[in-house]
Specification:
Number of strands: 8
Keywords: DNA-binding, Transcription, Transcription regulation
Structural class: alpha+beta
Number of helices: 7
CATH superfamily of the largest domain: YebC, transcriptional regulation domain
Domain TACO1/YebC-like second and third: 80-240
Domain TACO1/YebC-like N-terminal: 6-71
Number of domains: 2
Radius of gyration: 19 Å
Protein name: YebC/PmpR family DNA-binding transcriptional regulator
CATH class of the largest domain: Alpha Beta
Family: Belongs to the TACO1 family.
Distance between the termini: 44 Å
Length: 243
């Protein structure tokens, strides 16, 4: 009886690891479906594969995910891309991107998850976000001119990010998030990769134009709400107006 807690803890750890691997595999599949199987021409896929390798996902699993997304071989990805717009508690605007093979199942499940927020109608709050390219990367150099790097990469904006803000940014490195035109994501990722940066995220997403003021208590409630959304197996990305 005294060690049952240890078995329970291991089960939780294994479950979380399984969820992580499952999410990485799905990201690879989606990236291959959107941009094709060539890592050299698909920066989102390249970044996803690197994350999967760091998480010890096997080569065979990675290759199957790429082939499935790209429609190579017998197994093909059949999924609908749905964008839900709404508000988290305390009127925080959010956009949720979902890939599902069963819209009839996923839509009511999203309504249940939104019970503490507001599930909006199509077009309800996209005007509160910029639809842009997002590239996150890090470099071992400590004296980096981020503005200069952004200009050279063709980015429109940039901000420094740390390991505390993003686990994919190793401690002791210089991290940055670059915003580009949607058509320039791959070009920016390619330039960064060729100039001493390691790209960890390369995608098209949503960046909030304004951020509601939140107390510490409200921020915790919003964080719990967003976490519940992100844990849904069909949810690919959650974009929120939270700093």
């Amino acid at each position: 009886m005294g060690r049952q807690w240890l078995h329970a803890k291991r089960a939780i750890v294994n479950n979380k690891k399984g969820q992580l691997v499952g999410g990485l595999v799905k990201e690879i599949t989606v990236a291959a479906k959107i941009g094709g199987p060539d890592l050299g021409a698909n920066s989102r896929l390249s970044a996803a594969v690197e994350k999967a390798k760091k998480a010890s996902v096997t080569r065979d699993v990675i290759e199957r995910a790429i082939n499935k997304g790209a429609g190579i071989g017998g197994e093909k990805m059949v999924m609908d891309h749905i964008v839900f717009e709404g508000y988290a508690p305390h009127k925080v605007p959010i956009i949720v991107e979902v890939y599902t093979d069963n819209v009839q199942r996923t839509t009511p499940e999203m309504r249940v998850l939104f019970k503490k927020g507001i599930l909006g109608t199509a077009g309800s709050n996209k005007f509160l976000f910029e639809h842009v390219g997002i590239v996150e990367a890090h470099t071992v150099a400590t004296d980096v001119d981020l503005e200069g790097a952004a200009i050279e990469a063709g980015a429109n904006d940039f901000e420094a990010i740390s390991h505390e803000q993003n686990d994919d940014i190793p401690e002791g490195t210089t991290g940055a998030r670059f915003h580009t035109d949607r058509t320039q994501v791959h070009a920016a990722s390619t330039w960064l990769s060729a100039n001493g940066w390691t790209v960890v995220t390369s995608e098209i997403g949503y960046v909030a134009k304004m951020f509601p003021e939140l107390t510490d208590e409200y921020r915790v409630e919003v964080g719990e709400f967003l976490q519940a959304l992100e844990e849904h197996e069909d949810v690919q990305r959650v974009w929120a107006a939270v700093k």
